[in-house]
Amino acid sequence: MASEGLHEPQELLQSSTIDRHRAIVSIREEFEAVDWYDQRVDATSDEALAAVLAHNRDEEKEHMAMTLEWLRRNDPVLDGHLRTYLFTTEPVTEIEVEAEAAAATGGSAMAGSSGSGSLGIGSLKGVG
Question: Mean pLDDT, to the nearest integer, of 82-87?
């Protein structure tokens, strides 16, 4: 049922809200499947079965990533947070402090960078 898990009546929700809900539920289900496969891989003593289960688990990770990318493309706030935190090496809490400081001053913080957040494109044009 498409409305499973909705907290408000479906007829009061925008179609984009329902689509994001579908994506979020799908991501949750994919992560749950990853957890189940992890447990099954650990529990079996049959190496061939473990290999099949591990393969299936990794397919679920791919499905989750694809759905997360759809969600990122359709949620600008999520997009901003993912751009701030993902694929960084600094402690996450330090990245948060930098991002909040940049937001408070109206600046732009690119996580993991020590500069102004500029990509330097202006300098390639002889500007900045």
Answer: 95
